[in-house]
Amino acid sequence: MPHPSSIWLTLGLLLGTLSSSAAISLDGLSTNSPFSPRSNAVAQPANVDASTIEFRGVISSQDGTLFGLYDRTRNQGAWVRQNEKGADFNVLAYDSTNAVVTVDYQGQKLSLALSTSKIEAAAPSMIPAIAAAPLAAPATPVVKGANPADQSRLESIAAEVRRRRALRVATPAVNNSHP
Predict the structure, then answer these.
(1) What totals of helices (H) and strands (E) does the chain contain, helices first?
(2) 3-class DSSP state for residue 11?
(3) For 6-43, how does the pLDDT look when each residue is reduced to its tens digit (9 = 90+)?
(4) What does the alpha-carbon distance between residue 101 and residue 160 come to, in Å, rounded to a whole number?
(5) N or C: which end of the chain has fewer CB within 10 A?
(6) What is the DSSP letter of 171?
(7) In whole angstroms, what is the distance from residue 135 CA to residue 150 CA?
C-alpha cells in the first residue's frame, strides 16, 4: 500500500498541472510571435542605389547566357540566367550592342552597364644603385697554438687571395659563352 503522503503529493502535482495549463493558452503563440513583423507594418523594399550593384561580365555557352552581378554592400556576387527565379538578382533584359543589363533587385529595376577594369600606370620605381664597395683585404689569420711553419703558410694563402681579388676587380668580366 502506498504511503499517504505520496498520494497527496501526486494529487497536488496533477491538480497544479491542470490549473496552470488552463491559465496559459498556447493557441496564438505562432501567430503573435514577438519576433515576426506586425501585421499592420508593410515591408518596404530597400532603396537600392545603382552604384551598389555591379554588372561584371557575360558568359555565353551551349547552356545559355550567364550574367555576372555583384553586390558591393554584401560583398557577394552571382552568375544568373535571364529570368531565373529564386536568385537575388533577376535579369529582365540584356542589350548586347551597348552591354547594358536590366536587373530587378529587391523590387527595383536597375539598368547596369558592363563595368570596365580600372588599370592605371604605376609610377616608375627607382631601383637603388648598389655601389661597388672596395674589397677589404682579408686580415692575416692568426691561429693560436700554431707552429711558425703553419702560420707562414696561412699568410702566403691570404696574400694569394688578395692578389687574385685585385686581378678580378681590375679586369672586366669576359663572357665565355659559346654560340
Answers:
(1) 2, 6
(2) helix
(3) 777 676 666 666 555 555 565 655 666 666 666 554 44
(4) 78
(5) C
(6) S
(7) 26
